Amino acid sequence: MRTVSLIFHVLLFLVPLLLPAHNMILYHSIHARLPAMPAQLADWLTVVLVLLGGFFLVRRLAVPRVRVLSTLYDYLILVLVLAPFVTGLMLYHHVSSSRWLMIGHIVAGDAVLLAIPFTKLGHMPFLLFSRFSASGEYAWKPARRAWGRGA
Amino acid sequence: MVKAKQKPLEEIFALIRGYKEKRRPRDVLQVLTVGCGGCTSVCMAGGQREVLVLNEELTELARREKVPLQLSCVTVERQCNAQFLEDITDLVQNADCILSGACGAGTQNLGDRYPTKPVFPALDTMFIGVDVDVGLYEERCRTCKRCVLGLTGGICPLSRCSKGVLNGPCGGTRSDGECELGGGLRCAWNAIYERLLAQGRVDDMMEIQPPKEWLERGQGVLVQRGFEERYDPRYDKDSA
Amino acid sequence: MEAGQKGLGKGRMNGSTKDAITAHRISRVLTRNREMIQLSLQACMHCALCAESCFKFQSSGGDPGYTPSYKAINSIGKIYRKKGRLSEAEYREINELVWDRCVLCMRCYCPVGVSIPSLIACARSVCREKGVFRTYDGERNA
Questions:
Q1: N or C: which end of chain C has fewer CB within 10 A?
Q2: Structural domain span for residue C109
Q3: Comparing C-alpha atoms, which of A128, A140, B231 is closest to residue C113?
Q4: From the CB of residue B206, how many other CB atoms can be counted at a distance below 10 Å?
Q5: What residues contact C42, with CB distance under 8 A and at least 6 apart?
Q6: Would C136 be classed as within a structural domain?
Q7: Which CATH class is domain B2-127?
Q8: Closest approach of chain B CAs to the CA of C124, in angstroms?
Q9: Domain total for chain A?
Q10: Count of domains for chain C
Q11: Of B44, B76, B83, the CB nearest to C136
Q12: Is C61 at the interface with chain A, CB within 8 A?
């Protein structure tokens, strides 16, 4: 779970930032851009990301201790986070020529960013603060409570 | 766990009354009784129910003695952990003095947290012991800091031998296994011998234990294994 | 309450005064801890990572009802949302969650920084004001 989460979160930031398509748009508007990764690589990484997102969905449905806590809100948030990537993939592969796909992609991306301070996606910036101030956890190391071997 | 016993009601009342007469002769004294949800709840000395009853008894006694007291009550989960004492700041502010239903450790912690309010103990802390039955507790540990239970078959010679002898029986064991001091006390060393015999390790008894370190070392401090670096900046784990 | 109502008004007043005091005391606990409770409930990501750090969870063989966040959300979460106005049956359920399924060992770990023991202790404080707490003489006090 921890490994999956790490890769997922890294890709979540890396892919949209280093996507050639996004960088082209950025360059057109402000004449500056970030380094871009090869488009093919971005495509594969997005697929990986969506699959990992699927892992989270499956985990939420299949693992009893997570399922018991899950509400509609949790599922919706996951769908919301994955929506820009899924629509991005569809756009890249020209699944549909409709304008609405592009509009949907942009709206989804904006919706995720807007939702950050108002939903639990707020853990994105806030985790940094809370993780290192929660008493007993001022550390980089995985804060595993050592209950003893086999506990 | 820690086992404690409530002080006699008259003693508790005398403490409060003494304070009132010295410091607040004219006011109605506001007393906050703070119960503890930890050890003293388990041994039913200072838990929520016990402090409620204590308050009722004190109110009645105060009425009879014509001492104007106003008693209120709250119970926190543990008084030995400062986190739980933060919940009652407003109640303590409104009180003139505090009566604590915790063991000595909790009562002191309460006093440390609220140093401007007198804290009176409602209990006498007795020992670290086990629950033999509901309402019946026996001492098992004297916190000697050098546990020998591994060699005595799990029976502590300090807390269970009347004389606390450390290396074998004193010679006063009666033939029925009772201590020569009588009173139904069992000879701990006889029990140790029988236990070790049953486990096939009587030789363990033959290892001579040095005297315990009872020298006054002041307040005990314990840094748990794994937390050395956090609390001791000079700690060097490579040399430990 | 029934005995009070049979009386000639004095009993009834005592019953409702007692209820009023209880409600006031519960409100006090919730108000004092309002920010902590609100923030904790919002910040909880429902990730269930806290379960691994709870020894009651481990020793129950992975019973999801022992997940620390589950215990917190269904005790203080419920109490907070309904401002302490729950039925006796609901309080009995909460009683089981916070007294039987948790010993307040304070070892539960939350990656987001939610202090689960604080939430459980808060729930216990509310239960105490309702006269619901653990006793050790074999008599059930709920």
A1: N
A2: 2-129
A3: A128
A4: 9
A5: A120
A6: no
A7: alpha beta
A8: 8
A9: 1
A10: 1
A11: B44
A12: no
